[in-house]
Amino acid sequence: MITDFLELGLSNEILNAVAELGFEKPTPVQSRIIPQLLMEDGDIVCLAQTGTGKTAAFGLPALEYLDIRDKGTQVLVLCPTRELCRQIHEDLTAYSKYISGIRIVPVYGGAGILGQIRELKKGAQIIVATPGRLLDLLKRDAADISGISTLIMDEADEMLDMGFKDELDAILSQAPQSRRTLLFSATLPREVERIAKSYMKNPDIVTVGERNAGADNVEHFYYMVLEEDRYAAMKRIADYHPDIYAIVFCRTREETKKIADALQRDGYDADALHGDLSQAQRDYVMDRFKRKALHFLVATDVAARGIDVSDLTHVINYNLPQETELYTHRSGRTGRADKKGVSIAIINQREKGKIRKIEAAIKKQFTRLPVPGAREICEKQLFHLINEINGAEVGREIDSFMPAIEELWGSMSREELVKKMLSYEFNRFFEYYRKAKDINIPEKPERKTAGKKAASDDGRTADSPDDKVRKPADGNPGKCEKGYTWLKISLGYRNRIIPRDIIGIMRACGIGKNAVGKIEIFNDFLYVALQNNVAGYAKSQIDGASYNRKRLSAWLIKD
Ligand code: AMP
After folding, report:
1. Exposed/middle/buried for 99, CB within 10 Å: 0-12, 13-18, 19+?
2. Do residues 202 and 173 both lie within one domain?
3. CATH code for the domain of 509
4. For 97-115, what is each residue's pLDDT tens digit?
5. pLDDT in tens, 330-383
6. CA–CA gap between residue 18 and residue 95 (Å, rounded)
7. How far is the CA of 48 from the centre of ligand 1 (A)?
């Protein structure tokens, strides 16, 4: 393995630019790919995670091959998102700092097309493009890829995931046969294999790191709590890491908004990145995050694609992704360029199986961590504050106020003064955590079966009167509590269901007793009132699941 940039066969112009960027030695994907691209012909499919230095791996050789006197387009880089497009453009511009006369033009959707057409008209030896926008430009004859010698697809799996299949087919079939094609992907799903088979010539398949494996320097942890404690767990994790700088992944844009809003309300520097934002809003959020004015970027998978932030302390899976492969992409955002990374997941009891699936896919183990308790968090915060005070520079301006300060505080003992100062900063924290309970849940939850007489948490027996049940005379439920929604489930007295079983079903979904309101049981179905914030989740977990070998249906009932 080549460990020195000087041995890769690159020209001095490029070596100087790379040295200025502070790259000391090539990353594994660069050592593996660059000499092959410089010395041999042929197509390559490269399976490498995000953040491994892929851009330089394909970008440096592409720059070497460029004929600067020829103003036509010679290299086309396709990538899934505008963020990645801009990032690749920025990186290639930095690598080509000492190549005069070079023109690299990024084109992507969500920005004015006329400006991009003007830029292309001035000449573009390299075009970096998202597939949809490029196709649009090709149709308008504003871009010409008929003379390209290299076509690079970056994050091909993401492009296909995002529905760019038809655009890729159209672009690839228009590119000249004589080109060299490089395809980079973190994973190799069937669709990527199809693209490689249809549009590449006997590609060499290069795997850097294990196929589908998580980056070696990323550690994986999970915290297990009840569904309704998910946000509280997130807050505690945040408070326990005062220097946290994290992307928080959510499944939907609604969830990103909700979590970012809640974090902001609770005094954290957080904002959301999702598909509803205009380009200017996205740029604003990203700029604040990159400057670390934001400590939390709450994002959907799609919105976070292409984000290149190299010093994240954590990736937080507020909710695990639906597909295991997405976890690889998420966790690949941390632990970049040889730094240590931490990827954590907040899960409920029902999601343990997902952790096992991900472990099998990434071939790494997760470690369960307890959600930090009040005392640990307060201690962490207090010493963080003390460290900050220790590091504070004492300005000369303060000298002129010293006599007056002496007069006010002179009689106070040192201990008293220290206590007062720290309490002033810290009381809010103590106050919040004073009543905080332990929100960790046991590894193996107790499951109860219908009809069993068992003592409940509060000592009542299963068939003792339960104030959560009102046996109705007719088939419609009464009004449920304010802030609650009825969930109708296809189980009833005929299935020998009693309230405790319903609490048990909810608990198995990760929903605690406190989120459960009234229960009304009929012969063939029942209604359970659930706090609004967990009702939809409960429906998604119960509908289609089985209980005592009966397949369940569940419906949300609007008042
Ligand atoms: P990429 O996979 O191309 O997105 O690169 C991930 C990060 O690693 C970017 O911030 C690059 O600037 C950085 N990087 C790429 N190559 C090297 C290298 N040889 N040494 C140090 N950092 C690098």
Report:
1. middle
2. yes
3. 3.30.70.330
4. 999 999 999 999 988 999 9
5. 888 887 655 678 999 999 988 888 999 899 888 888 888 889 888 888 888 888
6. 6
7. 13
Cα Rg of the chain (Å, integer): 29
Collapsing DSSP to helix, strand or coil, 499 comes out as helix
443, part of any domain: no
459 C-alpha to ligand 1 centroid (Å):
59
The amino acid that residue 386 corresponds to is: I
| Same domain (yes/no): 492, 515 | yes
Q: Is the CB of 56 under 6 A from ligand 1?
A: yes
Question: Does the pLDDT at position 457 exceed 70?
Answer: no
36 lies in a domain?
yes
The residue contributing the CA closest to ligand 1 atom 5 is: 53
- Per-residue pLDDT tens digits for 140-174: 999 999 999 999 999 998 888 888 999 999 999 99
Q: Kindly report the CATH number assigned to the domain that includes residue 17.
A: 3.40.50.300
pLDDT higher than 70, residue 198:
yes
CA distance 215 to 246: 17
439 in any annotated domain: no
- In our burial notation (b when 16+ CB lie closer than 10 A, e otherwise), range 16-38 reads ebbeeeebeebbebbbbbbbbbe
Residue 360 lies in a domain: yes
Ligand 1 contact via 336 beta carbon (within 6 Å): yes
Please check whether residues 469 and 556 belong to one and the same domain: yes
Which residue, chain included where needed, has tokens 């990024």?
Answer: 106
Which residue has the CA at smallest separation from atom 16 of ligand 1?
53
Report the separation in Å between the CA atom of 357 and the middle of ligand 1, taken as the mean of its atom positions: 29
Q: Point out the domain boundary residue: 207, 238, 258.
A: 207
Tell me if the pTM is above 0.70.
Answer: no
Distance 315 CA to ligand 1 centre (A): 18
Cα–ligand 1 centroid distance for 92 (angstroms): 12
Residue 512: Cβ within 10 Å count: 20
Q: Is the CB of 51 under 6 A from ligand 1?
A: yes
Which atom of ligand 1 sits closest to the CA of residue 24?
Answer: 20
**Overall number of domains in the chain:** 4
Domain extent at residue 142: 5-207
φ and ψ at residue 402, rounded to 5 degrees = -60, -45
Q: 339 phi and psi, to 5 degrees? A: -85, 160
Task: State the average pLDDT over residues 54-80.
Answer: 95
Tell me the pLDDT of the chain averaged across its residues.
86
Q: Which residues, at least 6 apart from 177, have a Cβ–Cβ distance to it below 8 Å?
A: none
| The domain boundary residue, chosen from 207, 226, 243 | 207
The amino acid occupying position 42 is G
Q: In what order do the strands lie in the sheet with 270-273?
A: 270-273, 296-299, 246-249, 314-317, 341-347, 218-224, 366-368
Q: Where are the alpha helices (DSSP H) in 481-551?
A: 499-508, 532-542
Please tell me the distance from the alpha carbon of residue 396 to that of residue 385, in angstroms, as a whole number.
22
CA distance 144 to 171: 11
432-452 tens-digit pLDDT: 888 788 888 876 533 333 333
Residue 349 beta carbon below 6 angstroms from any ligand 1 atom: no
**Residue of the CA atom closest to atom 18 of ligand 1:** 23
